[in-house]
Specification:
By secondary structure, the protein is α/β, with parallel strands linked by helices. The protein has 12 helices and 10 strands. It folds into 2 domains: 162 residues, Bordetella uptake gene, domain 1 (D-Maltodextrin-Binding Protein, domain 2, 3-Layer(aba) Sandwich); 117 residues, D-Maltodextrin-Binding Protein, domain 2. Helix 2 packs across helix 10.
């Protein structure tokens, strides 16, 4: 009798051991996920965040709340993430800006993205598109450079935010093409794109999602892309690299969590994002807007950040680039 009870208890224990890991994983998320977007509404990060957040909501059964925390080139939203409880319910959705600012805003940056954040997923990559207001009398990049040299103060060159790849591309334009101009920095891709579409600034290296509607509506004229190879969404445009060798910049988007977040939360969000990227409405949107879905592992995201920090450190140091 005792032997039978022992065997029964053992079977029950094994059953519970198998059950509880599944239950524990299924319990996440226990409440709405806060997706911090450190840029303004209407930009490439915000647009993707809302699209992916809705697909995740449909899958996980919890709200994904978009929290736009703008300022300091994405550092305010990132700092809020670093200081948030590492319970898996706060996610930062940011861009290559986070790698740029390691050098550009080292005095203001109070955290290290490689040690104070947990990588979750490299979501996507996109070319920046060199666009001008239709009133700017040029049809190609070479003519734009010449116009900048003929203009007494140079051109008003926009930048999405301080430290964004849009900002760095404007500075690279001065370095590589010897163009002349003043960089005007905005609080996000949406406001910057609106600035060039209304003629407030002359040119901008814009993110594809925020600029494509304006390009299609002829409110902006596109001249080139910043990727090493032509962009699938704009195949007729030359690359800046073909005109000025070495001029490449990739506006990538990625998600992070506060350091020490549960592995099951990182794994679940990574899986949900990768699944969302395969959804027809998401893949269709990405194709139309010139975005390339990635869906990496956390380790691959770490490798990307390390490479980008080194790349932009050289550009910033060589160009003695400082924020005003």
């Amino acid at each position: 009798m005792l032997e039978r009870l022992t065997r029964s208890a053992l079977r029950l224990g094994l059953g519970l051991a198998a059950f509880f890991p599944i239950w524990s994983q299924a319990a996440y998320p226990e409440k709405p996920i806060r997706l911090i977007v450190p840029f303004s509404t209407g930009g490439g990060t915000d647009i993707q965040g809302r699209l992916l957040g809705e697909k995740m909501r449909q899958s996980i059964g919890q709200q994904v709340l978009i929290d736009n925390r703008t300022g300091a080139g994405g550092l305010i939203g990132a700092q809020i993430t670093v200081e948030s409880p590492p319970d898996g319910h706060t996610v930062l959705f940011t861009t290559a800006t986070i790698a740029v600012n390691v050098t550009l805003q080292k005095e203001r940056m109070k955290f290290d993205p490689l040690t104070d954040l947990d990588p979750v997923v490299w979501v996507s990559s996109a070319p920046l598109v060199l666009v001008v207001h239709p009133s700017v009398p040029v049809k190609n990049v070479r003519d734009l450079v010449q116009l900048s040299l003929r203009t007494p103060e140079g051109l008003n060159m926009g930048g999405n935010t301080p430290g964004s790849t849009s900002h760095l591309s404007a500075e690279m334009f001065k370095q590589f093409a010897k163009a002349k101009g003043v960089t005007v920095l905005y609080k996000g891709g949406g406001p910057a794109t609106l600035g060039v579409a209304t003629g407030e600034i002359d040119m901008l290296f814009a993110t594809a999602p925020s600029s494509m509607p304006h390009i299609k509506a002829n409110r902006l004229r596109a001249l080139a892309v910043t990727t090493a190879k032509p962009a699938s969404a704009l195949p007729d445009l030359p690359t800046m690299n073909s005109l000025y060798p070495g001029f490449t910049s990739d506006n990538w988007y990625a998600m992070f969590m506060p350091k020490g977040s549960p592995k099951e939360a990182i794994t679940r969000v990574n899986s949900e994002v990768r699944k969302a990227l395969e959804a027809r409405e998401v893949s269709g949107f990405y194709a139309r807007e010139g975005l390339d879905a990635v869906g990496s592992t956390p380790a691959e995201l770490t490798d990307l950040v390390q490479r980008e920090i080194a790349k932009y450190r050289k550009i910033i140091t060589d160009g003695n680039i400082r924020l005003r």
